[in-house]
Design brief:
The protein contains seven helices and five strands, in the order H-H-E-H-H-E-E-H-H-H-E-E. It has a three-stranded antiparallel β-sheet with strand order 1-3-2. Strands 4-5 form a two-stranded parallel ribbon. A hairpin with a 2-residue loop joins strand 2 and strand 3. The protein starts with a helix and ends in a 5-residue tail after the last strand. The protein has about 160 residues and is mainly α.
Length: about 160
């Protein structure tokens, strides 16, 4: 289930409404969503089937999002992390194949791609490397290698360089 699509769907709007009230009857949902009672019943039954609501007599109560939506989001995030690892492995294979200076230098032609790469460097960094990079000058201390990996760098760039 795509959470964004779900929350913008009629079932998602029903779920949102149930979260705002202690409990609701079919007539309450029908009035709030401006649908007929049969449609409201179908939406509520759908929510109960998904485990997003519980029926208590003739009333319905939302199950907290932390119980029903959070685990799904965490699973999707884990999937994305695994996909990133696989793509990074493929990139490393490609870099190893290219050898030489191409292993460390990659031509980035578009401004959008450069911005995406800088953002990725920022978010993937595991250590902080303090540096201020100006548009015309980059300083490297004697004896230090100018080559660093995404896991080693977190830097501030002058806006003109982007």
């Amino acid at each position: 289930m795509d959470v964004i699509d779900y929350l913008s769907s009629p079932a998602g709007r029903t779920y949102r409404y149930l979260l705002t009230v202690p409990d609701a009857a079919v007539a309450d949902v029908a009035g709030e969503l401006d649908v007929d009672p049969l449609t409201a019943t179908g939406l509520l039954d759908d929510l109960c089937g998904r485990g997003h609501a519980e029926r208590r007599g003739d009333r319905y109560v939302a199950v907290p999002p932390a119980t029903v939506l959070q685990p799904e989001l965490l699973a999707r995030e884990d999937e994305l992390r695994q996909a990133r690892v696989l793509v990074d492995e493929l990139l490393e294979l490609q870099r190893e194949r290219s050898g030489g200076v191409n292993r460390y230098v990659e031509l980035i032609e578009s401004r959008d791609e450069l911005q995406r790469r800088v953002l990725r460097l920022q978010t993937d960094a595991t250590m902080e490397y303090l540096a201020l990079v100006k548009a015309t000058t980059v300083a490297v201390h004697p004896g230090e290698s100018p080559v660093v990996t995404a896991e080693q760098v977190r830097a501030v760039f002058e806006l003109d360089i982007l």
